[in-house]
Design brief:
Strand content: 5-15%
Protein name: Integrase
CATH superfamily of the largest domain: Intergrase catalytic core
GO molecular function: DNA binding
Number of strands: 8
Largest sheet: 3 strands, antiparallel
Helix content: 40-55%
CATH class of the largest domain: Mainly Alpha
Distance between the termini: 80 Å
Radius of gyration: 31 Å
CATH architecture of the largest domain: Orthogonal Bundle
CATH topology of the largest domain: hpI Integrase, Chain A
Number of helices: 16
Pfam families: Arm-DNA-bind_5, Phage_int_SAM_5, Phage_integrase
Order of helices and strands: EEEEEHHHHHHHHHEEEHHHHHHH
Strand order of the largest sheet: 1-2-3
Family: Belongs to the 'phage' integrase family.
Domain Tyr recombinase: 232-410
Shape: extended
């Protein structure tokens, strides 16, 4: 097996680790095509006896002995590297280090270099494995759809911009990410918003991380490509706008059902995927009063979301309990496909004269805003109801309004100050 990789061996004096007598260890750095690892030589030398230019010990009674040992280490590494090149298509510094130390190498790739997949083959492998996880209920079908969409966009980019059907993993350079981003945002029709395009780059980066983990490439060439973009601020509906949609007299049955599903989302915070799959089994009775809650494992994060059933939600559940669709498919309310649902919501926005487009995700943001700023739920509770893994995600959904701060400050004033604005007298505790 042939490898065209290059080995560099460097000895250097780690003066930052010098002891009380000014003796510091000599370290050996192994570099293969820009990837580094360090090993200890077991040698120490005084800070005044190391020649930085020649990387040798000078003016020391042990200089010859130490320099001989360094030469021996370098020779052993070069021999081991030569042997590894006959066995593996790709060699990492860690592999060479382990060989030098007589540690067994655990390499997942096979000896035949043709087993290394191309980019599109690797994407296909990942999607197939992800699909098996979906079949076992360990991953979301919606996420699988997103991976298939990423595969389609990469294929489009390769075809239209690079004029190829596929590309070898080791032919991918750092610039690949920027070119892919420019295609998605500037050249593709329809083009993607910056945040959506960055999501595709993140997916590509994840694919190349898999390649690196399997040692099909030395390192991810786009690992340092920054995928951050400003979070677009989604302005939630005001409570009066939600009421306006709810009370609108509609004569078209499909718009009535879409309106009801949207209102259901606004008062539960469930994402489209979760509201689509809601059944009677997700209704749980809590406490001595048998209060009804919706309790469901969120499809995307597998985190349990728990929301008390508010009167308007209970009304909608009752409205559709005898619906043929809900009875046949064991659903709480009828919901269209994602595409039709969001298409009809745009039409509903025009009919209700809302003045901005409606979509299923906006309903989730509206719920978060109402819970936090109108009903004054703590952020931690809102996070649990939304099924978020961490509270930082919730902070992007529900930004604290000035009105909430004003209410809290008014409560604080009543506790600390009297009606005249004077600071109250407090007894020592």
């Amino acid at each position: 097996m042939k490898s065209n990789q290059n080995l560099k061996i460097l000895f250097w004096h780690r003066k930052s680790k010098k002891d009380s007598k000014n003796y510091a260890p000599i370290i050996c750095r192994i570099s293969i095509d820009g990837e580094d690892v360090e090993i200890s030589t077991g040698q120490k030398v005084h800070v005044d006896n190391w020649d930085v230019k020649s990387k040798k010990v000078i003016k020391s009674e042990n200089s010859k002995k130490i320099n001989t040992e360094l030469n021996r280490i370098a020779s052993l590494l070069e021999v081991n590297f030569t042997v590894l090149k006959t066995k593996y298509a790709l060699i990492t510094p860690s592999m060479l280090k382990n060989t030098y130390k007589n540690v067994t190498i655990d390499v997942k790739q096979q000896d035949d270099p043709h087993t290394i997949p191309s980019l599109m083959e690797l994407v296909g492998i990942h999607i197939n494995e992800f699909g098996m996880l979906v079949d076992k209920g360990l991953r979301s079908k919606e996420t699988l759809k997103q991976w298939n969409a990423t595969k389609k966009k990469i294929a489009e980019f390769l075809d239209t911009q690079l004029k190829v059907n596929d590309i070898k993993l080791d032919d991918i350079e750092y610039s690949f990410a920027q070119k892919f981003l420019n295609y998605l945002v500037l050249k593709r029709f329809p083009s993607l918003k910056d945040a959506a395009a960055m999501k595709q780059i993140k997916n590509l980066k994840q694919i190349l991380n898999i390649a690196e983990a399997n040692q099909w490439i030395l390192k991810n060439p786009i690992e340092k490509f920054k995928c951050g973009s400003e979070d677009p601020e989604i302005k939630p509906l005001e409570i009066f706008e939600v009421e306006k949609i709810w009370r609108k007299k509609l004569t078209i049955d499909r718009l009535v059902k879409v309106r009801d599903a949207f209102i259901f989302q606004c008062f539960t915070g469930f994402a489209y995927q979760d509201i689509y799959n809601l059944t009677k089994e997700h209704i749980v009775y809590v406490g001595s009063d048998n209060e009804k809650w919706l309790v469901k494992e969120r499809g995307k994060t597998k985190v349990t979301e728990m929301v008390p059933i508010l009167p308007i939600v209970d009304e909608l559940i009752t409205k559709y309990e005898n619906s043929p669709y809900c009875m046949i498919y064991n659903r709480l309310i009828p919901v269209n496909s994602n595409f039709r649902y969001n298409s009809y919501l745009k039409e509903l926005s025009d009919v209700c004269d809302i003045g901005k487009p409606l979509n299923s995700h906006l309903a989730r943001h509206t719920f978060a805003d109402m819970m936090l700023n109108v009903l004054n739920f703590p952020l931690e509770d809102v996070s649990k109801m939304l099924g978020h893994k961490n509270i930082r995600t919730t902070q992007r959904y529900a930004r604290i309004r000035k009105s909430r701060i004003g209410k809290k400050m008014k409560e604080a004033k009543n506790i600390i100050f009297d009606e005249a604005g004077e600071l109250k007298r407090f007894a020592m505790i």
